Amino acid sequence: MTSAVSVRGLWKRFGQQVAVAGIDLELPAGKFIGLVGPNGAGKTTTLSMVTGLLRPDQGSVEIVGQDVWRDPVNVKARIGVLPEGLRLFERLSGRELLAYSGRLRGLPGAEVDRRAAQLLDVLDLAGAQHKLVVDYSTGMRKKIGLAAALLHNPEVLFLDEPFEGVDPVSAQTIRGVLERYTASGATVVFSSHVMELVESLCDWVAVMAAGRIRAHGPLDEVRGGAPSLQRAFLELVGAQGQNTGANLDWLGGGAR
Ligand SMILES: Nc1ncnc2c1ncn2[C@@H]1O[C@H](COP(=O)(O)OP(=O)(O)OP(=O)(O)O)[C@@H](O)[C@H]1O
């Protein structure tokens, strides 16, 4: 198996809080990979360390055989990232943002124009291309961020919650674009809380909880005997029969 991403002994602490507790991961190339886990599991921290945005306390990360923290410039040229929170250049239009990203990636101007026009069209942003990013909706921001991450045709694409705030029609389009991209041998790693989405999109899944990897492997293996990934997930993270808020007896209709 060729690895797109290889993580060894990765640790990150924030003061007393251990966010990532020594994880090992081999993510296969050419797959659609889902990273799932409850709130605070350490997904964003892991993706930030893997993509060269946050320095690990310990451990190493290789992407397509290159050490991320030894040669970050080389690795960053080969990956695309849609980070959490998505800080974009708000006073540029969508079109200008893509032009800027493309030139920053070293693409010739004419090629940037060609690719930007195609991406804006496919992602249904052509009508809003001259609007400032600050005036974009949440879903439009995700889509322009995705376009910027894809523009230089990276080998591995990392997406933190790419479908959050995206309408169903756009989600279907994004799916199509990403499926086409992985079919050509590229790798997508994305984090999500939406199990149905992960189940329908991914070939390969890693489940994280409390800073550790609880299971990882092909979707069928991780799901095991469970009827759905959601059920397997609840078992893996030990959330079955958890507090459903029965003690919130003041909440709801009736006497006040
Ligand atoms: N900059 C930071 N300073 C202090 N603590 C942090 C920081 N970033 C993350 N943490 C803590 O590390 C843990 C993991 O956070 P992380 O954002 O990686 O989780 P996540 O799996 O992405 O969660 P979510 O699904 O809610 O986005 C949490 O307990 C969080 O409070």
Automatic annotation (TrEMBL):
ABC transporter domain boundaries: 5-235
Keyword terms: Antibiotic resistance, ATP-binding, Nucleotide-binding, Transport
Entry's Gene Ontology molecular function annotations: ATP binding; ATP hydrolysis activity
PROSITE patterns xref list: ABC_TRANSPORTER_2 (PS50893)
Record's subcellular location: Cell membrane
InterPro entries listed in its UniProt record: AAA+_ATPase, ABC_transporter-like_ATP-bd, ABC_transporter_ATP-binding, P-loop_NTPase
Membrane topology, from the record: Peripheral membrane protein
Organism domain of life: Bacteria
Chief location of this protein within or outside the cell: membrane
Keyword set includes Endoplasmic reticulum: no
Listed GO biological process terms: response to antibiotic
One GO cellular component, as annotated: plasma membrane
Any Pfam family the entry gives: ABC_tran
Record PANTHER family: ABC TRANSPORTER ATP-BINDING PROTEIN, DOXORUBICIN RESISTANCE ATP-BINDING PROTEIN DRRA
Name of the protein this chain belongs to: ABC transporter ATP-binding protein
Originating organism: Streptomyces canus
